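Practice problem: predict the structure.
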Amino acid sequence: MTEIPINAFDMTCVSHQASGLWRHPEDQAWRYRTIGYWTDLAKLLERGLFDGLFIADVLGTYDVYGGGPDAALRNAAQVPVNDPAMTISAMAAVTRHLGFGLTATLSFEHPYPFARRISTLDHLTQGRIGWNIVTGYLNSAAKGMGQTRQTSHDERYDIARDYMQVVMKLWRDSWEDGAVVRDAEAGVFTDPARVHRIRHDGPYYEIDAVHLCEPSPQRTPVLYQAGTSPKGRAFAGDFAECVFLAGPSAAIARHGVEGLVSELQRVGRARSSLKIFSLVTVVTGPDDAAAEAKWADYRRYVSHEGALTLMSGWTGIDFSQYDLDEPVRHVRNDAIHSAVDALTVVDPNRVWTVRELAEHSAIGGLGVAFVGGPGRIADLLEDWIDRTGVDGFNLAYAVTPGSFEDFVTYVVPELQRRGRYKTQYRQGTLREKLFGTSVPQYRADAA
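Answer:
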């Protein structure tokens, strides 16, 4: 049986994908601003043999709902939010195997300093860093960077391609293997003949520089990508090693997988060269009744306004203008195309009301929530893989760290009993662990 890869899904904020549950007495998300929260979480996840911690991020505030940031601030809807990169070194220091998927928006940082940041993290984690490549979707972020509004959706992916050309040259071509000789007798630390200037003159970026870091264990981070619009899928086909998708139904998730597989075929890549992770929130306990009671308790804390604030930012639709029982209209805009498409692309006859959308997304965003004891959850996870074709899951929380603790306590042993979950980590870098390869570096022919 194939093992199921699982990442924890978190964000350096109070309220990530569970709107209103920061008020729950068991939730400790308010500790996001402390080192202890992140090191405790990392140790818990490594004890549960999670493949990685996938850290979401957003630059800007959710100000589409109501035309301003008040609802986001009131509901702690992904604000306040800290820089996720700062937590990773601390977590790496208390773990040996756990990987880290850093979300970083390329739209607002030049590739030259960013390449150094990633190489530094790959060194400090000893080869356990991944990069979730995002192009941004909030006008508030663009305005914060001095722009009038964000660049159009499709052009952002054109910019991303140029960006990737630069960082890949820096990571892969600037320093040869063996450039660092550390010859104390000759007084030579680095052989200059083995270090090369990178010159790039693209449509969006120009560079003439040597990469600042010596080669890290992976050189290139494991490349994650989260967009499933046509432009996003094409980008994933060309660059991604892992893709994160969210679908409110198995049919929608399956549609996303099929689109990604077609892109792999377009560029001649094997299906095994891409890991596809589906968003899921699991509420579990020792048995079904205990899990259902916990779910009912969590639902008491849900904030419709908080959920719709996030949904407005994801789709670009101001849901404050709708009554709760009004149908959602399909609007094309420059936010996340895949979030809008997910509502209609597979079942065009389904009309969501605003209330249904809020209820669905209040715990788990645009993903799905599974509720039950260990056996039921294992059944649901296996069935989801069979019906959608995904490889594994990004596991969001209802309360933290409780949702992760419950999964480790109840679900991991059941998956292991079925032969669907690892009983120990593979050795090597994050890339080697995920793909079972002895080659730690990104390979153009494989991804």
